Amino acid sequence: MPMSQSQPRDTGYITAAALHLLVTTAGSLFMLLLLTRTANASVANAAANVLRMKLRLRVAELVAVFAKGKLVARDAAARIEEIAAAIEAAISGCRSRSPRDLDQWIAVRVRDAVDGDPVPPAPRRCQTVTDSEQTLGLADAPRAERLAVLHIVLQRLTAAERAVLNARLRPHATWRTVAVALGVSETTARQHYERAVERAQLLMVSLLAERVDGRGEDDVLPQAA
Fold first, then answer.
1. Are 153 and 200 in contact (CB under 8 A)?
2. Closest CA to 25 of 88, 113, 86, 107
3. For 113-138, what is each residue's pLDDT tens digit?
4. Using CA atoms, how far apart are residues 76 and 80, in angstroms rounded to an integer?
5. What region, left, alpha or beta, does residue 123 occupy, with left being phi > 0 and alpha being psi -120 to 50 degrees?
6. Quick check: 23 and 30 in contact, CB under 8 A?
7. Three-state secondary structure along 160-195?
């Protein structure tokens, strides 16, 4: 969906309230993982930091489910950190293509770790996530959740940043047409676009960092073996 179609309007578009309802814990974890794979180094690093924090919250929830009294309180924090660190190290090799699959991938590894099995390390060759400019790195995220995030991000960008994104993301746009629309050179247009994308993605990370409360309806637990 072209970015220009997700600009704020009076009706028909997702509001901040809908963002709270739509972006689930599993969904935000999945979008953060996508950003670590598709964004530039600074954004990927910011996304990885938030992913680390949110992953530990999710692992703590799952340990509480799977441990079922096996851990005493004084040992729980250290065990949660140990499991979370192992999953964080392995997540680069996760091939899940949806929030539900990612959450199940995490849950299975937490369950196995609680049972005493080590978390398998990431494979040497990890999956590469393809990207589409229109989604600014969230091409594989659920459409409703992706649009909720993009809608709020657009509202927080400056008019100039929205202008360069809209010019670049119009159908059949070229760098020449973008430069003409902005009244600048093609080199300057590229620079403006890259800066706008980076700021939009950093705003996404900030929004996803706010989604740290509770489990959403798409969060799943595997059946215990």
1. yes
2. 107
3. 988 887 877 665 545 555 556 688 88
4. 6
5. beta
6. no
7. HHHHHHHHHHCCCCCHHHHHHHHCCCHHHHHHHHHH
